[in-house]
DNA sequence: GCTTAATGATACCATATTAGTATCTTTTGT
DNA sequence: ACAAAAGATACTAATATGGTATCATTAAGC
């Protein structure tokens, strides 16, 4: 039941910090503030800017700032980036597709629960998180 | 977002089968029916009987049967057995406890979502799953 | 009582995912 | 030119999960 992973957590914290500061923030600054290993933080930031969540500025006095309004960044997007597709199947039968697939009750129930969770996750955006 | 793991899935399928048959079922039979690797299935069954979900009978003509009414076996119990504690923290800050812990909004939100999922999972029991 | 077919216990290996590191190149303000 | 930033990429480590192998123990049935 691990909803969010470490990557995602770090990413969210970084984004929140950048959102609060509302200025260009450098990787070293984030490393200091969040206490995350430097190369790891950099990797995460690169990913976020590649995904257009952040906007990066190279060169001296460079850094990162948000590329979207905090309101427009849902945590589910970030989960997507670092954890791949969110939905899953609920049936692990070997390699082949389970013959029972259509009727499987467990499968259906799990689907519903997942969708509920996803709906709730979609509501949470950065604006919500930084607002005390 | 992997709600249930392979272990759990296999276990649930085994339990459902045993519940439907409503007799003593052997590991080899389950292996055949469910198409799960034999030693793996055995390991799962052993665990289930150790946890008092199943009742095991040794010796020739031995096997497993349910130790509880299907209604009394919630899938969350099985998740517990094979996936450990279900709740988690939502904060991954290094080793120490996050100073922000108390106020952290993300944390709270995640908690709520998890609890909702858990509540829903608690509703699902074997009786529900085997009822067409 | 001996054989056989079952489970109990345990220790081990394989694979995938996640976490983290290292290194080198490119860009840009001063 | 130089320094300080990000870009790119390839590698290693740790952990969790999935799966295997082996040997001991129990009990029904002849
Ligand atoms: S048993 Fe295969 S989908 Fe549920
Ligand atoms: S940032 Fe530590 S609990 Fe949320």
Summarize the structure.
Chain A is mainly α.
What is the strand and helix layout of this fold?
Two copies of one chain form a homodimer.
Chain A: H1 6-21, H2 27-34, H3 38-50, E1 54-57, E2 63-66, H4 75-83, H5 105-123, H6 126-130
Antiparallel strand pairs in A: 1-2
Helix pairs in contact in A: 1-3, 1-4, 2-3
The structure holds FE2/S2 (inorganic) cluster (2 copies).
Chain A binds a DNA duplex (30 and 30 nucleotides) through helix 3.
Give the tags.
DNA-binding, 132 residues, binds FE2/S2 (inorganic) cluster, mainly alpha, 6 helices, homodimer, Arc Repressor Mutant, subunit A, two-stranded antiparallel sheet, 53% helix
Order of helices and strands of chain A, N to C?
Answer: HHHEEHHH
The ligands bound in this entry are: FE2/S2 (inorganic) cluster
Low-confidence stretches of chain A: none
What gyration radius of chain A follows from the Cα positions, in whole Å? 18 Å
Percent of sequence in beta strands of chain A: 5-15%
Question: How many helix segments of chain A?
Answer: 6
Number of strands of chain A: 2
The two chains with the largest interface, and their residue counts, are: A-B, 38 and 38 residues
**Could you give the distance between the termini of chain A?**
27 Å
What is the highest CATH level, the class of the domain at 6-87 and 125-131 in chain A? Mainly Alpha
CATH topology of the domain at 6-87 and 125-131 in chain A: Arc Repressor Mutant, subunit A
| Main β-sheet, spatial strand arrangement of chain A | 1-2
Could you give me the name of the CATH homologous superfamily of the domain at 6-87 and 125-131 in chain A? Answer: Winged helix-like DNA-binding domain superfamily/Winged helix DNA-binding domain
Corresponding CATH architecture of the domain at 6-87 and 125-131 in chain A = Orthogonal Bundle
Which bin fits the share of residues in helices of chain A?
Answer: 40-55%
What's the pLDDT, averaged over the residues of chain A? 89
User: Which secondary-structure class do the elements of chain A indicate?
Assistant: mainly alpha
The global form of chain A is elongated
């Amino acid at each position: 039941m691990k909803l969010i992973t470490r990557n995602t957590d770090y990413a969210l914290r970084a984004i929140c910090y950048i959102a609060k500061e509302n200025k260009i923030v450098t990787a070293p600054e984030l490393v200091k503030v969040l206490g995350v290993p430097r190369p790891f933080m950099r990797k995460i930031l690169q990913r976020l800017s590649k995904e257009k969540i952040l906007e990066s500025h190279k060169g001296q006095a460079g850094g990162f700032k948000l590329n979207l309004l905090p309101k427009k960044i849902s945590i589910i997007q970030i989960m997507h980036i670092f954890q791949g597709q969110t939905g899953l199947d609920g049936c692990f039968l070997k390699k082949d597709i389970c013959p029972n697939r259509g009727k499987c009750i467990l499968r259906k129930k799990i689907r519903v629960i997942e969708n509920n969770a996803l709906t709730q996750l979609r509501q949470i955006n950065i604006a919500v998180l930084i607002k005390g």
